[in-house]
Amino acid sequence: MNLTRRDSLRWALAASAPGLWLTAAQAQAWPSKPVRLIVPFAAGGTTDIIARVVAQGLGEALGQTVIVDNKGGAGGALGTQELVRQPADGHVLGMATVYTTASGRAINRRIGYDPLADFTPIINIAATPNVIAVHPGFPARDHASFLQLLRRSPGKYSFSSAGTASIGHMQMELYKSLSGAFVTHIPYRGSGPALNDTVAGQVAMVFDNLPSALPFIKSGQLVPIVVAAPQRLAQLPDAPTFKEVGFEPVNRMAYYGIVGPKGLPRSVVDKVAAAVHKAADQPEVKKRIEATGSQLILNTPEAFAAQIRAELAVYREVVERQGLKLE
């Protein structure tokens, strides 16, 4: 049987129509089963807290249970590696931080994924200020005298952080590169031991997230020097921001967002973003997130993608300029 070109086109369209209809139906039906939200850190940290606070409202908005799955290890790399191996159907998402999307890859090209190619950014939920705090016995208690002392005594003092390539480590290296100060880095396996040794006087200072450092500051066991935040914090009204002391590039907060594997359909991205907004509108959710010392961001997928690119570029430059390597 001879078919005209027009007949052939009709047959092709007819054959493909069921497939097109199925794809659209699948997108509309998502999620068709519980959604797994990978947290690439152990339970109890700020990333985990924010994930769990949002998960319930997110599940209610999506009509499916959202299961928080802690997959810690390698500073967040192991759980993130698992995320990027998942199919792009929206049923497995992941929490993203500065380490998993920027600083980790900046210092370790073998981390197992490319933040710019292997993720679908969805939304930055919240961000947390960071703080340099010193032991009460440290000779300086304000930024001017703090910096003067460090410049006068290069290498005499050390600082603790939650680990190599943690935001505290990278921000202090950025500060050092801009200020001309030199302080030795002492990496720990998490904020807890870093703070404990600083409080005990084993290390002179710590650069850490505000939520974990704040209880020690409130109790007088640590003294805040300067904070990385858009403006002064109500909790620390006397501590200036890095912008105020002339080092605005260090005013970078830790963030906690949601990403999917690469190739996630835009319809799924939009549904997740809308569901997070709906969850964050609940007064109790907002209250619990702000109780961690975090500020709600709730930006667009495009804005979050731009933020990831910017953070990666900043910390790649820090690594190169400071000659940083994995310890």
TrEMBL record:
Pfam families: TctC (PF03401). The keyword Signal applies. PROSITE patterns: TAT. Keywords: Signal. Residues 1-29 form the signal peptide. Belongs to the UPF0065 (bug) family. PANTHER family: BLR1237 PROTEIN, TRICARBOXYLATE-BINDING PROTEIN. This is Tripartite tricarboxylate transporter substrate binding protein BugE. It comes from Aquincola tertiaricarbonis. The lineage of its organism: Bacteria, Pseudomonadati, Pseudomonadota, Betaproteobacteria, Burkholderiales.
